[in-house]
Design brief:
Layout: H1 2-25, E1 51-55, H2 59-75, E2 80-85, H3 88-97, E3 105-109, H4 115-125, E4 129-133, H5 139-147, E5 152-157, H6 161-168, H7 172-179, E6 183-186, H8 189-197, E7 203-205, H9 217-230, E8 235-241, H10 245-252, H11 254-258, E9 262-267, H12 273-282, E10 287-289, E11 302-304, H13 311-317, E12 320-323, H14 336-340, E13 345-347, H15 355-364, E14 367-369, H16 373-385, H17 387-403, H18 407-420
Parallel strand pairs: 1-2, 1-4, 2-3, 4-5, 5-6, 6-7, 8-9, 8-12, 9-11, 10-11, 12-13, 13-14
Helix pairs in contact: 2-3, 2-18, 4-5, 5-7, 9-13
Length: 422
């Protein structure tokens, strides 16, 4: 309790700085300045009831929640789903993914982790169950749910060794927070051991829900429209790139482009779209932007994928994909959706956030690892010239994604007793 009081005091002292940072970030992303009252537990209108609540902090967690949201809507037809986020991109992703379910799926911001703000949130929505996606564990949020007897489950839980060490430094604060979950549904055995070591009292290994995300027919159709626009050209995709990675890829892509291939770059974060466009412009090569038209031009050397919610289309467009976040020490981005689309994946050395999935994909023949972006682009050129080998990798990716599915059903089985007991 003493540690949580200290944690709360530090949060309260930092709140003016957090608010100023929020306003500052709104210079580039005006959406950060919208709906600010929600970040302090103030919501307009009547709360949808009965409801199940899922916290998906940003884009990755929101996309991971998609199969679970769909399953919950079917399993509990009288319930609404309240999705909470911390970033505008997470919220926008939810609104895109669940546009045809808007009457039952509602997206809001979760308040900052102060006791009175979290208590206000829980009292307003009164969820029958709270589901936290992956690793977003906030001590005062867990305590507020305990005070109102709202059961909590940590779903699709993943915890790298690095993150586990950081949590361990918090001592009893972390143990109380992880111990507050009725059940932790971990992705892997290694994740389960780390959660248990941090105080989780019940841990079940359910697998990775992201294996249950299937490419949408609409996304595939859009990608095929783009392919038709560029004719017979081959496409190398740099997917979900992070800051500093685009420069490496652009430096190494000259030979690929000289071969006639189209390089498509899709940055992970929308606030970087314009900065990446400036980097591409500095190469002197002809390029286009997704935001400027419906399809790449047949004469573009590079196409900037500055759009949200269209990764399925980008994967359908690509012959080979370089996975972002793996070329510099960011820990990697989700490669499963790319495998499910049947697109060969090239990974860099930094995959600690998706370590088991990465190693499994490599073992299955769906992915290969390179030391750096330059080496990966050499491999990409080889694969473009070797159709049979490339097609075998794509087929292996589809099998890999299918074989590891089922985490959503296993998670739903853990959820059911908690909801019925409400």
């Amino acid at each position: 309790m003493l540690m949580r009081h200290l944690y709360t005091t530090l949060w309260a002292c930092a709140l003016p700085v957090v608010g100023a940072r929020l306003w500052w970030k709104g210079r580039r992303q005006p959406a950060y300045r919208a709906d600010i009252a929600e970040r302090f537990g103030r919501y307009t209108g009547t709360a949808p009831r009965p409801c199940l609540w899922i916290h998906a902090v940003s884009v990755g967690e929101t996309r991971a929640a998609q199969p679970l949201v769909t399953a919950l809507l079917a399993r509990y037809p009288t319930h609404h789903i309240v999705l909470t986020h911390m970033t505008p991109t997470g919220r926008a992703t939810a609104q895109t993914l669940f546009a045809d379910m808007a009457e039952r799926v509602h997206s809001v911001y979760l308040p900052y982790d102060l006791p009175w703000l979290q208590a206000r949130f829980v009292a307003h929505f009164r969820p029958a169950l709270g589901i936290v996606m992956e690793t977003e564990v906030w001590p005062n949020l867990v305590a507020a749910c305990a005070q109102r007897a709202t059961p909590l489950i940590l779903a699709n839980g993943r915890l790298s060794q690095r993150s586990a060490q950081r949590y361990a430094r918090l001592g009893t604060l972390a143990r109380a927070a992880f111990g507050g979950f009725a059940v932790v549904a971990a992705q892997t055995d290694a994740d389960a051991r780390r959660f248990a070591a941090l105080g989780a009292t019940r841990v079940e290994v359910t697998g990775n829900i992201k294996f249950d995300i299937a490419p949408t027919p609409a996304g595939i159709a859009l990608g095929m429209q783009w392919r038709a626009a560029i004719g017979v050209r081959q496409v190398v995709l740099a997917a979900s790139t992070r800051e500093g990675e685009e420069a490496q890829i652009l430096d190494a892509a000259r030979a690929l482009i000289a071969d006639g291939a189209l390089l498509v770059i899709v940055p992970r974060h929308p606030q970087r779209f314009d900065a990446v466009a400036q980097q591409i412009r500095a190469t002197g090569l002809r390029f286009g932007r997704r935001s400027a038209g419906s399809a790449p031009d047949a004469h573009d050397a590079i196409w900037l994928g500055d759009s949200m919610g269209e990764m399925a289309a980008y994967y359908a467009l690509a012959d080979v994909a370089l996975m972002g976040g793996t070329w510099l020490p960011f820990g990697g981005q989700n490669l499963i959706e790319c495998c499910a689309a049947g697109t060969p994946v090239l990974l860099g050395p930094h995959t600690y956030n998706f370590l088991e999935a990465s190693e499994q994909a490599i073992a299955a023949g769906a992915a290969r690892r390179s030391n750096d972006a330059a080496d990966a682009l050499r491999v990409a050129r080889t694969l473009l010239a070797a159709g049979t080998e490339r097609e075998a990798m794509g087929a292996a990716g589809k099998r890999f994604a299918q074989q590891h599915g089922g985490a959503t059903a296993r998670t739903l089985a853990l959820i059911a007793p908690l909801v019925s007991a409400d």
